[in-house]
Design brief:
Chains C, D: It comes from Plastoroseomonas hellenica. The complex is a heteropentamer, with 2 copies of chain A (233 residues), 1 copy of chain B (236 residues) and 2 copies of chain C (371 residues). With 233 residues, chain A is an all-alpha fold. Chain A is built from 10 helices and no strands. Chain A has a single domain (8-229), classed as MetI-like (MetI-like fold, Orthogonal Bundle), CATH 1.10.3720.10. Chain A starts with 7 loop residues before the first helix and ends with a helix. Helices cover 34% and strands 22% of the residues of chain B. Chain B contains 9 helices and 11 strands. In chain B, the strands form 2 sheets. Chain B has a 6-stranded mixed β-sheet. In chain B, helix 2 (40-48) packs parallel to helix 3 (61-69). Chain B starts with 6 loop residues before the first strand and ends with a strand. Chain C folds into 2 domains: 2-223, Rossmann fold; 237-362, OB fold (Dihydrolipoamide Acetyltransferase, E2P). In chain C, helix 2 runs parallel beside helix 4 and helix 3 packs antiparallel against helix 4. The longest helix of chain C has 17 residues, at 167-183. The chains are: A mainly alpha (233), B alpha/beta (236), C alpha+beta (371). The structure holds adenosine-5'-triphosphate (ATP) (2 copies) and magnesium ion (MG) (2 copies).
Chain lengths: 233, 236, 371, 371, 233
């Protein structure tokens, strides 16, 4: 599996990056759709506040996000402590933590894209589904969701790309542990922080870039199919 | 650019002390210096790319070397007036002293999931000193897989403060400023290269009297008290 | 029995609707009126897609909407099939899946026309695997119609469902809708601009103008009135309920009985005893003061001239005729009327060309027999 | 003069179009055919919105599309106004801005109807400040129509522009379109399912079926043919060009002259000398073997029975009559024909009710005078 | 202007952040629309490559982006050197540099949103505009652009939020000079680098959050109007 031009550690970083980015997207997709739905369709007082909270990871520096996650999910945090006591789960320093930090960071990006997708769904079609007997959940699954799928795909792609590059929050929350939490960006960062590390950093950045192209090609393929399915092409 | 403006690029770990110095400098009737704090590496690269820095205060020697090799430094002005100590810290509520000497079995102090937080030895100065010290103790091979490598000292310290890591290896200055941790041991000075902070005047500021004066102020006897107050050791 | 009473105003100075009417339990009620008079808005409110500012919608005693008591049954629980003016097919589903969408969600045991039947009738079999995007306007409308029918609704709301169809296809679909209404006893609210669709289907007519109900009632009664905008149409005329009396296959004729006598029409497919409804257009009825001979017109009916009414066009008149108990309208020029010296009370012969009937379709079986 | 020849196939096994026809320089050419036969596809190709796999579109000698030589003039440089089947109003612009969109982009000096005129005629004055979203189906279609007209096009393509309109509004818009065609000498390609629109407007007719042209030619010639699907319609009949001879305001009558004699019709607004076109529907024409008396029908024309043709319905026949040089169709039951003992060559009287004409509108001024 | 509860330096950071975020959005909006248009409508061989390049700032860590910018626009860089020689313009370490770094970082976010907006424009309406005589540029301005404006607004909001929080690229490219390039996130970073600086960091993060809420409320207002204008509400 390990091509000769990558050190074992770098190869691990590549695999880990892919894993972390994928897991973060998978984790955040469902909540993102839910939150997007609330933001677009919801009529409740705290809507703008929810919107702001969703944007928070964008607005504050990633290090602060990592720091906040540490406060929440750390072993002394309000979520981390019970997790540890009841389930013996310790998140920090694991690749799960890296995925979580990445998910939080890319969450606003997914939500935004999903929202745009949802907003462009013709409400007339949902109305038609209602008259055909489809209840709220049913018509969401069979009409709204498929019709907003271009937005979901776009969000997935953006989040995946951002996940490949997420750095500040991951290193703060999950630390940089080779083989565990050292993703590509952490490796790249390490390289740039070393005098003379430019070449290594450049090579790793190129790998990131190649991964991104791969992801985009895949997304392109899915989008083509999707557009055909949505009858737009 | 007028001769009397002064831009100082200082390693992030000097933030607090430098703010203090800047005020003192102003209090003496000088214009306020502009201070830019970032990782030494970022600052060094910026200087390489023509950043308008008059004074560079690095947190470690290699990045000053990097700048000097590119002929951007007034060589004669390079000094390393202050230093730091490397300490082992533990969360304040579970601190038990650890004697740090050759062959101290640090790994034995750790539970199966525990890690020691410190800077990333690959690029964070504190991590490099930690690596040297652990190697000197003969513990590197055993401990290195158990390190939680943080982005900078403050993050490492935070991991200890929050109880994520039962131990951390940080500078004594940082340890002193944190209420959440307690120093449980100090690495012997001979266990690692001296922790020094090289300062130098940049070549572009060769004729900048302000810059020279400020550098002199920082390295002069009047500053010693302030440096000590912030936990730094004075060189020699 | 559907009772509708709605009040709604879009924006402060916008269109305002204030309409109430009833529709029979298993018949077609046509909503008829000029563009922008509020027909689609009424359908939306009945379907539950628009919550009017005030109003009630009651079907068979069950209130689906009552703003006074706060009752509102969501559209998905009303089981009202809707054919929208703009088709509204699901673009991501194939034509077949679109058609089956409502069918899958219909309660077990609900009856209605089968998938194959609907597909064949609407001529959309070759489209089943396609997606809606490439469909032509008429194809889209047909699929939408099929989708609503297959949902096995208990009320069907149709907004100009046949407007995009050619005459041939309409002539096929109309009798199907009539059969549906009778077989499934499915009440239908039907928006249309075309009088032939009213003739073929409607039992009741609700005439709308600018959000208000102008008149409401049985089609036969309303079409005989000369004071409604209906009468100003070139195809104005009375709908007459008839019974098939006998067929004469050799001569290609069917003899129909109605309240005022008999009519000969081109051979009809319905067996003797069936009831039919025919529009005798005012302009297809001529009058003669003496019994005519040697004419190709086979229907010469003795009639009394009851009244002469204006038509709206200055030089033409409506003659209100009574053929037995059945009212009939004839549209003649003022000149003819004068030439023939027509006076109310006079006995005349009404001449009707046998082939001059509106598009025929079986009338609802609830129509009373011609008395 | 517009020449169109197109070949196009959607997907490998999809709909395939292979149609060619010509349209006159300043007349209305109606495209007529069942749903899905390719009418909208043809319009799209002529407008330049669809690039067919092969074909030519030539207007007045200028090739706009020629796949053989690679010529393709983009739609925005063709200046062809299009009224789409689905309106396609710009949702972000007010009705007024929608209407002015094309007007603003028309070349200086281009002439056409004025903004106020179009707005008044289409009855959309009260909608000007609104956005398209809340418009009713008919309102939308009217705005789309206005928008295309105001772009001052050199060719107008209309896809069922009146399908969503009520009869009254249609009766207002149709003569306007006819005036437009004459005044602006604007050629129009017109898709419709409604024969009355063909009567009111069309000079040429292109009959389509499944992507092929069945027949193409002048409306009067095509409507007199009994071998086309047109004849199977219940409103089949011959279009006859006439000239207004005189008005008799007192009797409310207008005397029209046509190739075969004269007709009395209800008073027309056109001054004497104007040309008109009337549809004499086969079912509105009766025949008598002796000159009838005492009838309200004022038009009794001596005619020769030229031929008896089948109608498609087994028990009815077409009688092909010649009234002077003008062909006429009468639809009678086989029974009547036998009763009257009709034989080709026989002299008959054709009876036409004076009010039984199709929706009348000024015919194109290019129609030849009745000979 | 300066409320008492902010130090002069912090107040400056707030103003600078707003300025940098706004300028970065303004700078990137037009190219983003152009690139989105190319990506959606263009049919040229290097499309996926362009897509990947656009995503690049997401994929590599921000510090690397800053580093790349430094290499390009620095006084010895292939762009920076001529700029300096010919025009005497030195970009690096100015607030313009901060805006540039922020713009580059948020570029993929704007492009993505604009793309989604563009993809949901009904091509039938553009076709209608063509038949009414609107040439490519005309119909883009009068039809496509207004109809894709929800996407543009969404992109603007996301980019503005991200701009408020951009850290790694700015500190690397523009340095951390109070009053010049020290934006809020840099100030927050500085605070976290100071022992006991958590309180200050928290306060500054809260200010960021407040700014974000302000921006979102504004966006909400604009979106409402826009939806009304687009006839969707
Ligand atoms: N993009 C497409 N892909 C595949 N088939 C198509 C496409 N567009 C049109 N068709 C098919 O081509 C045929 C002709 O379509 P067109 O829209 O021209 O019909 P039409 O004559 O306008 O019908 P209608 O009166 O119903 O509007 C239809 O069967 C339609 O399904
Ligand atoms: N959301 C809305 N906001 C404002 N006005 C509206 C809205 N919806 C409908 N209207 C107006 O209400 C009136 C009635 O509309 P409706 O769609 O019910 O007409 P309709 O009778 O179906 O006409 P058509 O035959 O043209 O379809 C129209 O004038 C329309 O402009
Ligand atoms: Mg309507
Ligand atoms: Mg069509």
């Amino acid at each position: 599996m390990n091509p000769g031009w990558l050190s074992a550690e770098e190869w691990q970083a590549v695999r880990l990056s892919l894993e972390v980015a994928s897991r973060s997207v998978l984790v955040s997709l469902l909540p993102a759709v839910l939150v997007a739905w609330l933001l677009v369709r919801g009529r409740f007082p705290g809507r703008v506040l929810l919107d702001a909270v969703v944007h928070l990871p964008l607005v504050v520096p990633p290090v602060v996000v990592g720091w906040g996650l540490l406060m929440l999910f750390g072993i002394r945090g309000p979520i981390g402590a019970p997790l540890n006591e009841w389930f013996g789960v310790r998140l920090v320093f694991t690749s799960e933590a890296a995925a979580l930090a990445t998910a939080v960071m890319s969450f606003p990006l997914i939500v935004r894209a999903v929202r745009l997708g949802l907003e462009s769904v013709d409400p007339g079609l949902e109305a038609a589904a209602r008259t055909l007997g489809a209840g709220p959940f049913d018509r969401f699954l069979t009409v709204t969701l498929p019709l907003m799928s271009p937005g979901i795909l776009a969000g997935t792609v953006t989040a995946f790309a951002a996940g490949l590059g997420e750095f500040g929050a991951v290193i703060t929350f999950a630390s940089n542990i080779p083989g565990e939490t050292q993703t590509l960006p952490l490796a790249i960062y390490s390289a740039t922080q070393t005098p003379g590390g430019e070449a290594a950093a450049g090579r790793l950045a190129l790998i990131s870039f190649a991964l991104a192209i791969g992801g985009l090609l895949l997304a392109e393929f899915v989008a083509r199919r999707m557009h055909r399915l949505l009858g737009r092409a | 650019r007028a001769q009397d403006t002064l831009t100082v690029f200082a390693a992030a770990s000097l933030t607090d002390a430098m703010r203090d110095f800047a005020q003192a400098w102003q209090a003496r009737g000088n214009p306020a210096p502009r201070l830019s704090f970032a990782a030494s590496s970022a600052l060094a690269r910026q200087i390489e790319q023509g950043a308008p820095a008059d004074l560079f205060m690095s947190a470690d020697e290699p990045w000053m070397d990097y700048v000097q090799q590119r002929d951007l430094v007034v060589n004669a002005t390079r000094v390393s007036p202050i230093g730091n100590a490397l300490v082992l810290v533990a969360p304040a509520d579970q601190a038990r002293p650890v004697a740090l000497a050759r062959d101290t079995d640090l790994a034995a102090l750790l539970g199966p999931q525990d890690r020691i937080a410190t800077g990333d030895p690959a690029h964070v100065p504190v991590g490099r000193y930690a690596q040297a010290a652990l190697t000197w103790m003969g513990q590197w091979d055993a401990v290195s897989p158990r390190l939680a490598r943080a982005d900078n000292v403050r993050s490492a310290l935070l991991l200890v403060e929050r109880g994520e890591a039962p131990y951390g290896i940080v500078y004594s200055t940082d340890a002193a400023a944190s209420r959440g941790v307690r120093v449980v041991g100090t690495f012997p000075a001979e266990s690692h290269p001296p922790i020094t902070y090289p300062f130098a005047l940049m070549r572009r500021a060769q004729g900048n009297a302000q810059a020279r004066a400020f550098l002199a102020f920082l390295t002069g006897p009047d500053s010693a008290g302030t440096w000590r107050r912030f936990g730094f050791a004075l060189a020699r | 029995m559907l009772e509708v009473a709605l009040r709604h105003r879009f924006a402060a100075d916008g269109f305002s609707l204030d309409a109430g009417f009833t529709a029979d339990g298993a018949g077609v009620t046509a909503l008829f009126g000029p563009s922008g008079c509020g027909k689609s808005t009424i359908l939306a409110a009945v379907a539950g897609l628009l919550r009017p500012q005030a109003g009630r919608v009651v079907l068979d005693g069950q209130a689906l909407l009552d703003t006074a008591t706060g009752i509102f049954l969501p559209p998905e629980r009303r089981r009202f099939g809707v054919v929208f003016q703009e088709a509204r097919l699901f673009p991501h589903l194939s034509v077949e899946t679109n058609l089956r969408y409502g069918e899958r969600r219909a309660p077990r045991g609900a009856t209605g026309p089968g998938f194959e039947e609907v597909v064949a009738l609407l001529g959309i079999g070759h489209l089943l695997a396609r997606r809606p995007a490439g469909l032509s306007g008429g194809e889209r409308q047909r699929v939408a119609l099929g989708r609503a029918l297959l949902a096995r609704p208990r009320l069907l709301l149709m907004d100009e469902p046949l407007a995009a169809l050619d005459t041939t296809r309409r002539a096929e679909v109309l009798p199907f809708l009539a059969r549906l209404r009778d077989a499934a006893r499915l009440p239908i609210l039907y928006v249309t601009h075309a009088l032939d669709e009213v003739d073929a289907l409607a039992d009741r007519l609700v005439l709308l103008e600018a959000g208000r109900v102008l008149a409401e009632g049985g089609v036969e009664a309303l079409t005989a009135r000369t004071d409604l905008p209906l009468a100003a149409r070139r195809d104005a005329g009375v709908l007459v309920g008839c019974t098939v009396l006998a067929h004469d296959a050799a001569r290609g004729l069917t003899r129909l009985g109605f309240g005022g006598g008999e009519l000969l029409v081109p051979l009809r497919p319905e067996p003797p005893g069936s009831r039919l409804r025919l529009r005798l257009r005012a302009r297809d009825v001529a009058v003669a003061t003496e019994a005519p001979r040697s004419l190709s017109m086979q229907n010469v009916l003795p009639a009394t001239l009851e009244a002469i009414a204006p038509t709206g066009t200055p030089h033409e008149l409506f003659l209100r005729l009574a053929v037995g108990p059945t009212p009939l309208l004839a549209r003649v020029t003022r000149d003819s009327a004068e030439r023939l010296g027509l006076l109310p009370g006079q006995m005349l012969w009404a001449l009707v060309k046998s082939v001059a009937f509106g598009l025929p379709a079986p009338a609802s079986s609830r129509d009373g027999p011609p008395s």
